[in-house]
Write a structure and sequence with these properties.
This protein is α/β, with parallel strands linked by helices and 380 residues long. It contains six helices and 23 strands. A seven-stranded parallel sheet has the order 5-7-9-11-13-15-17. The chain has a five-stranded mixed sheet with strand order 1-2-3-4-6, with no helix packed on it. A three-stranded parallel sheet has the order 16-20-21, with helices on one face. The chain is globular and about 85 Å long.
């Protein structure tokens, strides 16, 4: 028993002294340093593996979202969106709105302005004011105009000065085209006015400088003042038999117009209707015409305000007090005693009667023949 107590005491003493020995301290330090080195190595290895994974497969990388990241995203989402000028410019190529009680307009990303719905279009102001056409602000983006078949009228100044427009389609239900509706659409090359249209307003297609082809529908009754003035590339025009009047200066300054056909229903041709048509050398006026305004045909103006581009000015007479002159050799064809003959005489132009043969007094010769009497008719 005494021996057992001594052995136990020795073990207790050793246990108390062991932590104080240098060897124990060294062992503890080595263990802690080893842990630090191993932890650093593991962290470096983890970062290297992450970099390699990102370089070899970006799509397969996974990010761990921390609470800080979530808070940052929440703050960002709460901030108002900032629209750049570039975004605004892009958005401006698409727009829509109303242009009549039952009509809407839409501008698509291709630059086509479409008028849809049914009924009449609003009238708009020329250039200024609150009543200017709503799509005018997008004029640089509009390249084509399409008017639906159920639209019955085109408003005044509706499409004025849309200089980028090259194509116009007018629906088959349109009856009236308002004044200045397409004025200044200087790159439109062709216009077809459907048979449904009965009235073309003042200056409706004025200064459509690129227009080379014009078709006027068979139901048009009135052509307004200056309706096609300044259409400098137009070379021919046919006024349908349905038309009853051609407005003042309707085709003024159509400097390349060389062929004009006037329908048999026309009764009135306004002042200066075909003035400054430098390529036009003559016209046939039907017997139905009863009124022709001053200088409607065969005249030009040499006022400095006119620029005839590369078209040669034809030979002409002396200028009158107003700066106008007759075109030398211009010929009016018509019927004797008609307004055409009166106009030609008053304005010093050559007149050719279309009815000279029909109105000539015939000579009659009677002769007896075995079978009866022979009557011969001859011209005077």
């Amino acid at each position: 028993m005494e021996k057992l107590r001594k052995i136990t005491a020795l073990f207790l003493a050793a246990a108390l002294l062991l932590p104080m020995l240098p060897g124990a301290a060294w062992a503890t330090e080595v263990t802690e340093e080893t842990f630090v080195v191993e932890a650093a190595a593991e962290e470096a290895a983890t970062e290297e593996n992450t970099d390699e994974a990102q370089e070899t497969s970006p799509e397969s990388s996974v990010s761990v979202e921390t609470e800080d990241d979530v808070a940052s995203e929440t703050e960002t989402a709460a901030e108002p969106a900032v629209v750049s000028e570039e975004d605004i410019a892009t958005a401006s190529t698409e727009a829509s709105g109303k242009c009549g009680a039952s009509l809407t307009w839409t501008l698509d990303s291709d630059g086509t302005l479409t008028i849809s719905g049914s009924g009449t279009m609003y009238d708009f102001n020329d250039y200024e004011g609150d009543d200017i056409s709503p799509w005018y602000d997008y004029s640089d983006s509009i390249t084509a105009i399409v008017i639906g078949d159920s639209v019955t009228s085109i408003g005044e100044y509706a499409f004025q000065c849309l200089a980028c427009v090259t194509s116009v389609t007018i629906g088959s239900g349109v009856k009236t085209i308002g004044g200045g509706a397409f004025i200044g659409c200087e790159n439109v090359k062709s216009i077809k006015i459907p048979d449904s249209v009965t009235s073309i307003g003042d200056y409706a297609f004025a200064v459509c400088n690129a227009m080379t082809k014009l078709t006027i529908g068979s139901s048009v009754k009135t052509i307004g003042d200056g309706a096609f003035s300044g259409c400098r590339k137009l070379t021919s025009v046919t006024i349908p038999n349905s038309a009853t009047s051609i407005g003042e200066y309707a085709f003024d300054e159509c400097i390349r117009l060389s062929s004009v056909t006037i329908g048999s229903g026309v009764t009135k041709i306004g002042e200066g209707a075909f003035i400054n048509c430098l390529k036009l050398s003559g016209v046939t006026i039907p017997a139905t015409v009863t009124s022709i305004g001053d200088r409607a045909f065969g005249y030009l103006s040499l006022d400095e305000m006119y620029d005839f581009e590369d078209v040669d000015v034809p030979a002409h007479g002396s200028l009158d007090d107003y700066g106008y002159a007759t075109i030398t050799g211009f010929t009016i064809k018509g019927y004797s005693g008609s307004a055409a003959q009166t106009y030609a005489k008053e304005w010093g132009l050559t007149f050719v009667a279309l009815d000279s043969d029909a109105l000539a007094t015939p000579s009659v010769t009677l002769a007896n023949v075995s079978s009866g009497i022979k009557v011969s008719w001859g011209k005077v």
